[in-house]
Amino acid sequence: MRIGYGVLAFTRVSASKFSLDSPAGQQVYTARMAQRISVSRNPLRIRQPAFRYSVRAVDKALRILESLGRESGDLGLVELSRELTIEKSTLHRLLGTLEARGFVRRDPLSLRYSLGIRMLELGTAVTARSALGRAAAPVLDRLAVRSRQTVNLAVLDGDEILYVAKRESPEPLRLTVEVGRRLPAHCTALGKAMLGFRPAAEVRRLFGRRKRLRRFTPNTITDPRELIEHLKEILGTGVAVDREELVPGLRCLAAPVLDFTGYAVAAMSISAPAVALGEERVAELRPMLLEAVAELSKALGGPADPRRSGR
Length: 311
What we know:
The chain is an alpha+beta fold and 311 residues long. The protein is 38% helix and 20% strand.
């Protein structure tokens, strides 16, 4: 039985505690007390097209969906009205329309709102119908079976990663990250794997002007110059490792998925609690991971070996 909700969840965790700094303060996961935790509360970075004629009602409805998508729990009418600065009467009508179409669900007891099943259906359809989603599905399946650990696929959006697919470990002690969740790129193996194979100018634009990056654990790289040097190492090895840089007790190794230009369009990872992912185990899993990303990269027209991408 899984315990915990939110970004990270464990099953049958012993007395170990895994802490994470969040905007709400330090929150702790244990086997005895499951709490919601969140790393990123940033709004979805949707690039707005240059379009002169905006339909207000549609714009408001989309803002409602974005707001509900950012939260791990349900929201009430008053909370949504305050956050979106939309009058309650107007908001109530918009929510009613979205609920009738299945895009929003209202809890019959609490009368609070969350995303509806239609959003899940559409999101699944986008992933499944994309070239990346179609090609990745069987590769993820095989890697999860071989590694017996949780396997994830993510894309890069600015300075964050977005999880687009996962396969959970069959082991009783496992790591779970929700599909659709965003996490910082600079302290995750998935993020570093993609950043290492992105143009240097793009990396400088994202991090070069910052004095410090946000620290989550003592292992987090917070100096942008140190991060850029670290990414050069990843470019040489083809594999990035998160050594408890986001959450104490959690480790991950990841490699980039490249298109025909050698550009990192995604990354694939193997994640596990640190007790199950020591250096010897990392060495065992590394060739499995590289074989999997090579297969997926080749399906997208990219090079089989990321180290020969020419970047």
